[in-house]
User: Fold these one by one.
Assistant:
Number 1:
Amino acid sequence: MKTESRDAEFRISQMIYKRLLLAYPRSHRVEYGPAMGQLFRDQCRDAWNESRNWGLLKLWLRVLPDLAGTSIMERLAALRGRKTMTGKLASVSTSGAAPTIVFALVFGIVFGLTLVVATAITFILPESYASTARVLVKPTATTSAQAQTYDPYFIQTTVEIMKSPAVLNPVIDALNLDQTWGKKYFNGALLKSSETLEILKQRVQLAPVRNTSLIAITVYSDDREEAAQIANAIAGAYRDYRVATYDGPKSLSQPVLVQITDPAEPGLAPVKPNKPLNIALGGMFGAFLGLIAGSLSAFITFKAGSTRRKRAAATGV
Amino acid sequence: MAKPENDPTSQLPLTPAVFHVLLALAGGERHGYAIMQEVMQSTEGQIKMGPGTLYGTVKRLLEAQLIEESDNRPDPHLDDERRRYYRLTGVGEQVVRAEARRYADIVAIARGKKVIGKAALVSLPGGCQ
């Protein structure tokens, strides 16, 4: 399972990197493209072994500026007809290239690279599914007078109880989360209940539905089925808790204090990351960066050109 | 970078990337990934070269004839045949020695002025001594 996941992420990363090599001039790509691709593949393997997805993300954050910088250098060197990568942007800009061409080139490269980075990061980030179960909760009334009394803290107290070990520990036991998550995230090590509880708390979101006695139990997980199972298990565990702690009149049959109105269903699509939004933001940020970089490059080109013209006019050459 | 001339000092000073790649190859012929790892290890992870910087540098060094491509494989059975190995040329060796000497002279000056102590020698680029 892990190997399949690794292979998929490797394939995506390598595919993106291969596309990004188009930023280099053709001659450089033909000569060094395969070797660069192979080196990147080796780096991917190291990064994955170091810290899996986070390692890949760090690698991309290191590789992309490298790629952006060196590809611009190679492109500008190629434009100038130079054979090597020597020279910085300013010196290359003295080649006499029109500022508008430099602007368009730099803007295009920066914009494209930023967009690709945003897309790459979006696709590398682990997906998260959400499932929500809704429960109707009623307070326990020991006397008829109490039944008519409004308790403003009831919903808030209920939410806190739902997040407590009294409710969540039975969920952990019922779904065997110590073992499942240990196997999934900690190389098979059996987790302590306290550790599993902390992880579970981070994945659960409880929210009262306005102007009702309903509480929405939302659970996030990278597995859509698991998210729904946990949400339903929490609803069931809370219902059991209320039954077990019922201290109402013994003579009457026990009223229904918790009703699961909407059982959770597995989510159809991941809620995180928001791919269209991330890519759109990446595009906007890329345009902004490209505008700055392009303007700066065009300005340097213009200044260098005017200095050269003045020098030529002074020397008569 | 210009073509090598008789005097290796005419190539100096080298950029850090160029010097590190030459130092890595001073230990024997290596492919791109091995060069990158050697640089990372010798600088204790301070310099992590990306593929763009590494192969840009390799390209410049090949053009300057400080390194050359090698057809030899340390062990063809254990290695990927597609990997390209590089090694120092005679001029490359002279240039890397000259650059190391230049650093050593600078360190000697700094030590003379008590800017650094003996221990600072190990933190030279590539850990040269």
Number 2:
Amino acid sequence: MDLHKWIIPHRDTHKRAHLLSWRAFFVYIIFFALLKISFSGLSIINPDILGTTSNITKDRIIELTNVERGKLGLPPLSGNPALDQAATAKAYNMFEENYWAHFAPSGKSPWDFMLGSGYKFSVAGENLAKSFSNPEEVVSAWMASPTHRENITNSKYKDIGIAIEDGVINGQTTTLVVQMFGTTSALASLPNTRNTNETNAKIPPPTVIPVEEYERKSEIALSVPVVAQAQISEPIINPFQLSKFFGIGIVTFISALLFIDFVILKRRGVFSLSSNHFAHMALLGVAAATLFQLESGQIASGIAFFVK
Amino acid sequence: MKLTIKLHKHSVLVLAIAAVFTIIAVFRLQGLPLMQFVSLSTLVFFYLIWALIFHHFDKSLKLEVMIEYILTALLALVILYGVLL
């Protein structure tokens, strides 16, 4: 078997290397599709095998949040046990109801958890993140998002509560980070409560509820029991890292073959500008750049809440 | 001949600019994988349209050429879907 035919273009016909043929591309596609299907299957059979490991700590998240506030000359936030409890209840509720959002399928809102833990806020906000491996990545991703940054750098907040919990969502073991902000200061002392960052036009207006409803919610505040999660063992396979590894491998491999093809055809004096080398390399280059910069974590848009 | 080379260079430049814009979008949307995937899918769609137009004007539009583009696009999408979503 002529091994070089797999890597370099044909000597006489100048046809592409076998590993760049449509059949080879078909095999790469099938391989990746099977990889994804295997992860989905594994997550159903044994979710504990798949997951991410993280070294996120509550103190570090608070520290990094205050560093970001400090850069803008804002006072640091103080850890609040009631907000911690609310954040923990919210995290467990997401595992229990199997969702990842600010509002539960059952209708529970972040404000319900805060009021349920006894935190009677006048201004409050919530940021969520999941599947990150370190606190720097979490805060950096939040700061890159206008709505999360708005919460982190909101001058009205005085307290912060954090929950970092491992559990299973959609059949996959993950680490959730719930960050809650608020202040219990009287509304009278907050004349500009609704104006938090006018410079950012992308921030949606905060949700406002009438005081009567707020009072009613306080009275019937949800008490979400914090149920101990099943012991989660260290995941054996990190599907994200494995997919990323194979993705970068294949994209780099094909790009390298295309480059070799281009150089050899150019040397032979048969390279045509009509060839697809540059277009393919541009697309694969973007795919590779995306894969390289990709972190496993996800954030949901941040939200804030004000009592009228 | 000169005109053809110019056309090719300009076409490649258009695709390169689209690629650079997509990379910027992907970096700005860190932590929002769905949005990143939408940005990349837009580029893939543009890449296919670009291929159709480019090879049409180049008079090199053939089924096998388009299959090669479609498979490359599909591979990029499958890999990115697998990692992002």
